[in-house]
Write a structure and sequence with these properties.
It contains five helices and no strands. It is mainly α. The chain has one domain. α3 packs parallel to α5. The chain is extended.
Length: about 170
């Protein structure tokens, strides 16, 4: 079956326009998600929304990195870190016992691990002057991830010191 040339040109133009508009739509969705995130009062919903907002922020940071706008990458990932902190504080305030009410905590912990990887990837691509802010963001995310794990698993076996076995006398 042969496709007419006019149809191919139309489809090609439509694909090109959609590629040009997609970064604009991604920025709009980040702004919309940010407003929704800031207004959300339920901490579990806020944590689940953090996953969507974080993905959109990662995409925005990747696009800025491809365009060579390292200031935008830093600002986006710093805002991501601040959002993670806000969601974590809201969870701790409304559901202090993460072991019993783990719903939002689990999503946050998984997503923060992904966020750490995104920041590390951005650090690899960033020029030297832009690495220190990303290193701070990375350290903050690692600290929050460790806090999430300790909240989810407060009685981990690694925390207990095992007594050495008694030596056998021959």
């Amino acid at each position: 079956m042969r496709i007419p040339g006019n149809l191919l040109q139309t489809l090609g133009c439509a694909a090109l326009v959609s590629l040009m508009i997609s970064p604009v739509l991604a920025q709009q969705s980040v702004a919309e998600l940010q407003v929704h995130f800031d207004r959300e009062n339920n901490s579990v919903k806020k944590a689940k929304l953090m996953v969507k907002l974080g993905e959109a922020q990662f995409e925005q940071a990747r696009l800025a990195g491809k365009d060579g706008d390292n200031n935008a990458v830093d600002a986006t990932l710093e805002k991501y870190r601040d959002n993670v902190r806000a969601a974590l504080e809201a969870l701790k305030k409304q559901h202090a016992d993460a072991e019993k009410h783990s719903n939002g905590y689990r999503q946050m912990e998984i997503h923060v691990k992904e966020g750490i990887r995104e920041v590390e990837d951005s650090m690899l691509a960033a020029p030297v002057p832009y690495k220190p802010p990303l290193q701070i963001v990375r350290q903050d995310l690692i600290a929050m991830d460790e806090e999430l794990i300790s909240l989810l698993f407060p009685h981990r076996p690694a925390d207990k010191q095992l007594a050495p076995p008694p030596e056998k006398q021959p």
